[in-house]
């Protein structure tokens, strides 16, 4: 049975109510805590998949993009993945040395290099993708199958929206979201100054 958004919200509200009745705040309704728990679980479940891949999970993401229809430049890859340009250079050097990607001149601008997967990179990506799919299923195993699909769609929608709003700069997205929260903490709750 698939849980609807309204049912999920009701469940969260009920948990929060029960926790508050018991005198404590429910951390399990906190978005940051939830994202962190799921992310750490995903990293643990997938660490063996990329154990020998240069760059680990970042190397996988680069390889996945490099096998796509559109060839990205090194600068575009760095911006899209939120990786420092200097770090990106080293990651690409390692992936190139492993024979997984190559830098090819852009026909439109010979000064720019496009990152393209090699045939070995395409083969390796197939194996890596199967490993990541198994890791994802492990992490999402407690959700009903229909909810897994809904979760993936909602997560993708949220991620692409946040990325678009930050013009592809994840650091700006974090700063944009932290600034209002920091302001709220700095000013604190407004209280009446009656004496």
TrEMBL record:
Residues 28-160 form the HTH marR-type domain. Keywords: DNA-binding. Residues 166-195 are annotated as: Disordered. Pfam families: MarR_2. One of its GO terms (molecular function) is DNA binding. This is DNA-binding MarR family transcriptional regulator. It comes from Catenuloplanes nepalensis.
């Amino acid at each position: 049975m698939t849980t609807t958004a309204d049912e999920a919200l009701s469940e969260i509200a009920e948990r929060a109510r029960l926790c508050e009745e018991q005198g404590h705040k429910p951390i399990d309704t906190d978005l940051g805590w939830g994202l962190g728990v799921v992310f750490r679980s995903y990293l643990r479940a997938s660490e063996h998949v990329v154990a020998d891949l240069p760059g680990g999970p970042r190397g996988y993401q680069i390889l996945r993009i490099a096998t796509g229809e559109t060839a990205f430049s090194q600068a575009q890859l760095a911006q899209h993945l939120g990786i420092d340009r200097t770090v990106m250079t080293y990651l690409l050097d390692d992936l190139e040395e492993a024979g997984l990607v190559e830098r090819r001149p852009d026909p439109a601008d010979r000064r720019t290099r496009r990152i393209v997967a090699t045939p070995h990179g395409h083969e390796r990506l197939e194996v890596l993708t199967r490993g990541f799919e198994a890791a994802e299923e492990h992490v999402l195993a407690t959700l009903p199958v229909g909810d897994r699909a809904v979760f993936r769609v909602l997560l993708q929608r949220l991620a692409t929206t946040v990325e678009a709003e930050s013009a592809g700069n994840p650091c700006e997205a974090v700063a944009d979201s932290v600034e209002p929260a920091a302001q709220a903490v700095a000013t604190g709750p407004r209280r009446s100054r009656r004496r």
